[in-house]
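ok trying again, last paste got cut off:
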Amino acid sequence: MLTRCWRIWMLIIFENITNGVVNLTLHGLTDFKKQAEQTLSFFTERKQTISAIRQEGDQVTIGIDYYAVLAIDLPNGPSKGEVLNLKGQSVFTFSPENTITRLTDIS
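nice, full thing came through this time. structure:
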């Protein structure tokens, strides 16, 4: 079972894929942190529950059940106060030194 605390590589690559389309790509820890902090204000409440874990080679795939309540209206999308219930997965790629080098969120 995964019990370690992992480090994130300074040059991490992050991708978000929705419905098979890459809609966000970030390069580097600074941009990754900035994006994570910006999205905090999008929700009044959110919860991620791990539904599955699979390790294969240098990758770990985590199934996630995602619940959130929107704090803002999204462009061309759901409105403030709407509840989101999504299923997705996060794929973590590790270096030989056990550093996270790539994170891909898929929904």
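cool. The radius of gyration is 15 Å. Strands lie at 7-18, 21-27, 43-56, 59-70, 83-94, 99-106.
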